[in-house]
Design goal:
The complex is a heterodimer of chains A (316) and B (221). By secondary structure, chain A is mainly alpha-helical. Chain A has 11 helices and no strands. Chain B is mainly α and 221 residues long. Classes of the chains: A mainly alpha (316), B mainly alpha (221). Chains A and B meet through helix 7 and helix 11 of A and helix 1 and helix 4 of B.
Amino acid sequence: MSLTSNIILPILQLIVIVGLSPLVKGFINKIEARFQCRRGPSLFQPYYNLIKLLRKDAVVSETASWIFRATPYVTFVSILVIALLVPVLSSCVPLNFTGDVILIIYLFALGRFFLALSSLDTASAFGGMGGSREMMISSMAEPAMMLSVFTVSLTVGTTNLGNITSAFLNSSTLLLNPSLFLAFAALCIVIIAETGRIPIDNPFTHLELTMVHEGMVLEFSGRYLALIEWASGMKLLILLTILVNTFLPWGVASGLTFTGLIISFALYVVKIGFFAFLIAILESSFAKLRLFRIPNLLGTAFILSILAIISLYVVG
Amino acid sequence: MTEQVIVSSRTIDILAVLMLMTTIVLVGTSRLRTSIWAYAIRSFLLTWVSGLIAYFSGIHHIFIATGISLALKVILIPGFLFYIVNKTKVKTDVESVINYTLSLLISCGLILIAYYSTQSIIKFENDFMGHCLPVSLAITLLGFFVMITRKKAITQILGLLAMEDGLFFAALSTSYGMPLIVELGVFFDILVSVIIMGIYVYRIKETFDSIDTDSLRELKE
């Protein structure tokens, strides 16, 4: 890559991920409101919320330690780094040299770890509950995510997401692998669990006994809350991007031409919009699972991912 | 293999894996209606596969089997099962002897056994439709497992149907189906047995006020 592309690509990618992530949230909320025969808030409501929160002062509990203050920044920055490790518009990845999909999984885990720590930090009852639930869910979702990602890596022979995308772009029959279908199904369930959408966790609850993610962030306010909300929105968009650009890579630009990027961006918006629409349908048609039923769903994801990797070994 | 052969064999493999997923749903779900839907979808996929195999191989009698399977397994039997569930007004929870997470793990083990035990045959076949034989064996084993571990009569019927699907798929994918007369016999068998078992379920419900087959033991007293 030349010097200009080294500068332009990361900036473009950050603008897309950081800038569009509240819009995805707003889009899902709008569709769900339409399903409930409401007009719903504006598409840009999440932006207004973020601006409002950023202007406000943060209230921090007197008993909170430095972990509480560091957590929003750690969460936000770990997600930002992931945003540069994922192919978004082009199959070239800005931070190609530093890490691959394994680093991405651990960066997600880093953010989650700090969030759980900070939820224990203020010793509020809701926080501890949310933190322990989040850890339970992620301990079951993470192996499934790893195995399904490794299935893809084994098919292509690399753990670099950019190379995976370009390999699928270049070969027409490589994607037609039954093992990849199993991995895709497992990854869909994992994404719902990781982002706390409805069958696992309800993102719209505040002060309910069943909350998971909201319970953890209950003590945060002002700009801290804004950073965490923004990071969770980005996490959703990044996971959808990984899903879309790995399993449906058509249209992703392989170089850095202007027209290629425009086409790639248009297709990207369509694909992400389609999956956001699917999430909205799912959230409107299902109730939240009971906490003790969650291992059931995530166990299914785990089994699908194990099958994916085993069938790849046995059949090829 | 030419590209076209690869694509068609991969397509059938993907449908086979989707069938396996619906069977995992049968093991993992806790709702009766979901499991009947899973059966209907699996039968639909099976019909699709047999249509594709008939088209690719050009053997005519598979088309007839496909048509009958569409009418019987996709429409008639699921419809009848839904009718029974509505008529008996049972609680639509699936009850299992062992808990769901454990049964999911056991079914995972069964599928692994199916894949590893057919490994040598697949290698012999040069990967052509390589997922079909292990998947059909896995579906048969899972159906058997569901029959053993579920308490309700209807879920036991669904287990039997899964076993039958697995066997039909095995015959279809390895040797382009059995002779037509055998297949017709099997279809008719399945239809009659489902109807008889349905009536039986209804009688159990009338007598014991539940369709839990454990309560049949009370006959001893």
